[in-house]
Amino acid sequence: MTLVRRRKAAQQTVTEPVELVVAPAAIDRALHVFEQLQPHDTSVILQARKILTTHIFGMVDQGELDEKKLIAGGLAHLKAVEREHGIKSAHVPSKKPGKNKSSSPV
């Protein structure tokens, strides 16, 4: 039983630095690059952080440990999301008719 505990502890020490140090650092760096490319308001940054967190931790789960690859993969995914769906600001009114009270007919 002691042997199993040691093995689990050894596995945990391998994943802890990635999950506690490398992945969060990659998320922060990718978010910093995203912000530098074009200024965004807080709601877009929060959405981008959520997208990056999910994607980068998914990469870690698949075995990627290299911080630079995590950053590049996160930024590529974020760009794809922007291209396909856009990341909408909570502060910009929708341009679709009927979505804003100011654009509804009187």
Care to describe what's here?
The protein has 106 residues and is an all-alpha fold. It has a domain at 17-84. It contains three helices and no strands. It is elongated and about 35 Å long. Mean pLDDT is 79; it is low at 1-13.
Task: State the main characteristics.
106 residues; mainly alpha; 70% helix; elongated
Uncertain regions spanning at least 5 consecutive residues:
1-13
Q: What is the approximate shape?
A: elongated
**Could you spell the SSE succession in H and E letters?**
HHH
Mean pLDDT: 79
Strand content: under 5%
Major sheet details: none
The gist of it:
This protein is mainly α and 106 residues long. The protein is built from 3 helices and no strands.
Ordered list of secondary-structure elements with their pairings:
Blueprint: H1 2-37, H2 42-61, H3 67-84
Helix pairs in contact: 1-2, 1-3, 2-3
